[in-house]
Amino acid sequence: MSRTPEAPSAPPVDGARTTDSTGPDLAAPARRSRLVAVDAARGLALIGMIAVHILPVYDPETFEPTLQWTLFGGRAAALFALLAGLSLAFSSGGRTPHRGRALTATRAGLVVRALLIASAGLAINQVMPSPAPALGILVYYGAFFLLAVPLLGLRRRTLAGGVVVFAVLGPVLVHVLGPVLPEAAAVNPTVGSVLADPGAALAQVLLTGTYPAVPYLSYLCAGLVLGRTDLHDVAVRVRITLVGTVLALGAWFAYWVLVLQAGGYAQLTQHTPWLSEDQINEILVWGPSRDLPTSTWWWLLTSGPHSNTPVTLIMDLGTGLAVLGLFLLVARPNWLWTTLGAMGGRTLTLYSAHLLALAMTVHYDRPALWFAVHVAVAAAFAVLWQRWCGQGPLERGITAAVRGTRRLVLGAPSRTAASPRS
Q: How do the domains of the chain map onto residue ranges?
């Protein structure tokens, strides 16, 4: 039911070099540890995505959610979006954001990245069978990046306010405008659906789809805030973990009190009479099959995966922060973290290959086997490709296009700057 996304690999991390006059670069181990942690968190999200796409979401005997659904349903998507914002912060100056012409060049490169990723998503969705075996996020991802272009130059306090605004205003816009917006013809945006009804496709990507870009900007803003902080500081890493835990538990507690204990559930059944209690419970546990009902504002207090309510957004953001903070605290350059990091550094390639493999629809009869195959192949490819070739093939192509765009905006360096005299 839930479909989880992908994030492009993180660009090189900036950071002030911590050196003294007599010793080596003291920042290098910390900087490498940070890269391992961020990519490893993305690798975990990729594994979670594969699990949700392939493994069962409920036990056929008890009809209870499976462990993988409980752990990853909706949360992998949030983690990917959070890490996307973090990567945007790294590529736009880190703790010292780009200004002036450098910021313009970064924004232009981000537009190119967004268009290329969205184009890849449209192409992959075009070959997906119907019904689709997965709901891809790449087209939405392109929209995330386009909408994030004006965010790159904002200060941390403004970005923190953006987290709250998009987490609340985004779901409100979906609730109010969703019923009057045109319905998309396809669950996955394709070239055909975009050309046939551009307005419906735009509404789908921004507000009514599985990963609506406007609410998801709350995750990108949070990632940008993190990327503007000192992630080398252990105290900062501890705070990220604690804040994430408090947000996740607090959002779930608010749902438990308001909906399950204080009469909210009765309001849902009263104002949505065309749904049985079993159907309402399915939405609360597995999320909406397509769109969340808008019959009452109480639906915005529910926490089903991919419901994209304020409660869901804050809860999944908290989970993502807690995971990232924990990884920043414990990740080290050993074989386990390096494998996860290799996968996380090539998720655009791996996620695209995963979707194309799902399009063959050979995974339904033996899901456990095919899950193991997808993860094993992804891990082996990532580690070997990293060792022999570096960046993933899709990542390398997009990076080249982005760098070319930045060079065009910045202009050719002068001979003096390019070849300083000793």
A: 28-56+332-409, 57-331
